[in-house]
From TrEMBL:
PANTHER family for the chain: AMINO ACID IMPORT ATP-BINDING PROTEIN (PTHR43166), METHIONINE IMPORT ATP-BINDING PROTEIN METN 2 (PTHR43166:SF36)
Protein's name in the database: Methionine ABC transporter ATP-binding protein
Species the sequence originates in: Halobacillus campisalis
InterPro entries noted in UniProt: AAA+_ATPase (IPR003593), ABC_transporter-like_ATP-bd (IPR003439), ABC_transporter-like_CS (IPR017871), ACT-like_dom_sf (IPR045865), MetN_ABC (IPR041701), MetN_ABC_transporter-like (IPR050086), NIL_domain (IPR018449), P-loop_NTPase (IPR027417)
Domain ABC transporter, residue spans: 2-241
Keyword Repeat assigned: no
GO MF entries: ATP binding
Length: 341
């Protein structure tokens, strides 16, 4: 659906050239929610703005449904852009227009006749859960409601792709969740492809099917969200996974654990599925003469199912402990022996 090849953006400033996006390659499937995560300065905003040519690429190609966006003239680009909606961190609404008129704006530009416009806007207002608020002005709305207007406006011309530029970063956690639920809802109802950028792993965890991790303008790691949670390869990815799974007291607790549980081995299990770990622990206790003590654990839900980590102490005769760990490693549960403190 979207194919990005060697996409590069260099900003030329007075003092220096800044390589914001560096030969980035990515392929995004129709109907998926694709998240791009990275710390500040990684190049995420530049990347997403390149996708609809709000920013002109220095080199590389972007294909949307086999149409090369990078080669299009201004007039053809205007038409192609109707396939791509976008929402922003600070909503970018027109403050002097009502909710209804904000949503109608792109339809006016596209030359949709008044009557059709009205029914489409009303449909969109219902879709995003703003029924009865059509006559309100943006200043009379909460942050979450403003973003709902942004979403309705972005969907007005029936785009195939929705780009989300840190769409929930200005919202509190509860409102963030309600906007993320709305994005999943429209992804499922309309089969809309969503590309989002964020610095919050919670957003990736909650709604994305796949994720790419960006650092210094490049994608350093990508894959299915659950896979990335289960096998993060890069240091930066591990830090993002820790945003969701990490316990603020983990370091202290590991110190204490290492002090207090000197016998046997302390291991960390990473697993997919709610019950996988319980099944494994009872299985191991039955098969081997060991005690399994659960020290700490956390399970979180992703779009593709549950992911969890658990810290356990395996205690018993050395050979039994070794055999138990060797057995655990043959299962679908990922085993990390002597996790870092
Ligand atoms: N218009 C510009 N002119 C010059 N340099 C720019 C411009 N826009 C972005 N950059 C630089 O490009 C790099 C990537 O910035 P970008 O805003 O894309 O990162 P980001 O991951 O979105 O970070 P943030 O979340 O802080 O916006 C940074 O070094 C930034 O200073």
């Amino acid at each position: 659906m979207i194919s990005i090849k060697d996409l590069t953006k260099v900003f030329k400033t007075k003092d220096q050239d800044v390589l914001a996006v560096d030969k980035l390659n990515l392929s995004i499937d129709k109907g998926e929610i694709y998240g791009v995560i990275g710390y500040s300065g990684a190049g995420k905003s530049t990347f997403i703005r390149l996708l609809n040519r709000l920013e002109e690429p220095t080199s590389g190609e972007i294909e949307l449904n086999d149409q090369n966006l990078t080669g299009l003239s201004k007039s053809k680009l205007r038409v192609a852009r109707q396939e791509i909606g976008m929402i922003f961190q600070h909503f970018n609404l027109l403050w002097s227009r009502t909710v209804f008129d904000n949503i109608a704006f792109p339809l006016e530009i596209a030359g949709v006749p008044k009557q059709k416009r009205e029914s489409r806007v009303n449909e969109l207002i219902d879709l995003v859960g703003l029924s009865g608020r059509g006559k309100s002005y943006p200043s009379q709305l909460s942050g979450g409601q403003k973003q709902r207007v942004g979403i309705a406006r972005a969907l007005a011309n029936n785009p195939k792709v929705l780009l989300c530029d840190e769409a929930t970063s200005a919202l509190d956690p509860e409102t963030t969740d309600s906007i993320l639920d709305l994005l999943v809802d429209i992804n499922e109802k309309l089969g809309l492809t969503i590309v989002l950028i964020t610095h919050e792993m919670h957003v990736i965890r909650k709604i994305c099917h796949r994720v790419a991790v960006m650092e210094s303008g490049k994608v350093v790691e990508s894959g299915d969200v659950l896979d990335v949670f289960l096998h993060p390869k890069e240091k930066v990815t591990k830090r993002f996974v820790d945003q969701v799974m990490g316990d603020p007291d983990r370091e202290n607790s590991l110190d204490v654990i290492n002090e207090n549980y000197r016998a046997g081995e302390v291991i960390q299990l990473h697993f997919v599925g709610e019950n996988t770990n319980q099944a494994l622990i009872s299985d191991v206790s039955r098969r081997f003469a060991v005690n399994v003590n659960i020290l700490h654990g956390k399970i979180t839900q992703t779009q593709k199912g549950a992911y969890g980590t658990m810290l356990v102490q395996i205690d018993g005769e050395e050979t039994e402990v070794k055999q138990a760990i060797a057995y655990m490693k043959t299962t679908s549960v990922e085993v990390e022996v002597s996790p870092d403190v």
